[in-house]
């Protein structure tokens, strides 16, 4: 049974951490971003079986579910039923949802990744992280000053748009690779991201480890560059070089000094094995903070890929349990220790770095597996392969439902497919013409398979799943179309970024986004649950 918890009781628990607690907002991301609790992780009901094993791996964790609080809304009830059925033993519902929280006098936050974004703003103030305006950077480039621009975002974001001649060095890679990129201490180093957070954290990372070069954060990142009227590259990729052994040794020494100042704890392999055996009594996250490519070549069994810069940038999407143990691993300690130093400053006390090299263990290869809850009800739904479905669509009465998020649907879906949100399946089906057969698809087919029983409850027709989803459809050489042509519900399931808008509207959204980031610091200033701190360069 799902119990209820009063907002005041929950606030007292959050303020008295670090006991373990998971606050999960089960609304779709776009709705979640309109207003949510500061330390809530977004776990949409539509994807709950997929998100739970990685967000809240321990079944006895105290979980508090919340939705909007509308009396006609049943998301928390349905989520609670599912989690109880799957073996979670301490599931609670926030009384009144986020509306009850606000009525209790507590703060709601808009946007996503708020703890990380607010932390970036916090760091800039006491550390006085130096920055440079886009116009001044352009002047320096034109003057022939020796400069390197390091873009601290993941490769996927870099490829979308980047500053001309910038080098892609994701956050945790900065200390690891900087001496290879800028061996001359006279070279001016500029760090940028899309907005502010990763620019500030990235620049301060290099300052904190004692880099002799002058380091500046690009004020407002690529958004500021674009708003200043300067062109951005599209579709380019300029990765940072692999560091030499001597530069790795320098980075290792600097990271170790930083770790001592930040109070980073270490753990050996034998102790970690004991912790794993006791995982029923405490939650432990094992994160590999190297690049995704390195992770796929070989990683520790049970570890998850969490590139260090993104772990700091979006910790709420990786760690659903507050107060849990976080163990970071890499191959030489540089990226793990620099990442750990930031997590500790963010107020995460139980952070450890594994001292045993990854190479000394038997490793798994390949990407991180996507495994839904093991105790979820078994699902057996007929499948149809892409070639057969393509041949049948023009001649049979088939309703094709696409369970991908609206951003993915907009950029590519099977012609005629209806955009459908799983948590709203009944209302979506009411807008879709009746058919003799319903076929569900999603990017890899997993979400479609999970949603098939939900559809079967409401239709008197055959329900099938496209085998392998859109990925298999593309692999078969079949086409996708773009746009928002068949919408069974509003596309409010994702948080729209400024670059999701058309040109003029995008500029307006960029200004709003940058204003939102800078206003986070005063919003969290009076919240006792925020325990940020900073260390300074030696």
Any overview of this molecule?
With 538 residues, the chain is an alpha/beta fold. The protein folds into four domains: 3-112, Rhodanese-like domain (Oxidized Rhodanese, domain 1, 3-Layer(aba) Sandwich); 118-252, Oxidized Rhodanese, domain 1; 261-360, Rhodanese-like domain (Oxidized Rhodanese, domain 1); 379-517, 3-Layer(aba) Sandwich (Oxidized Rhodanese, domain 1), CATH 3.40.250.10. Helices cover 39% and strands 14% of the residues. The chain has 22 helices and 21 strands. The strands form four sheets. Strands 1, 2, 3, 4, 5 and 14 form a six-stranded mixed sheet that branches. The chain has a five-stranded parallel sheet with strand order 6-10-9-7-8. α6 (114-127) crosses α10 (197-208), α11 crosses α22 (503-524) and α12 runs parallel beside α16. The longest helix has 22 residues, at 503-524. The termini are far apart. The model has no long low-confidence stretch (mean pLDDT 94).
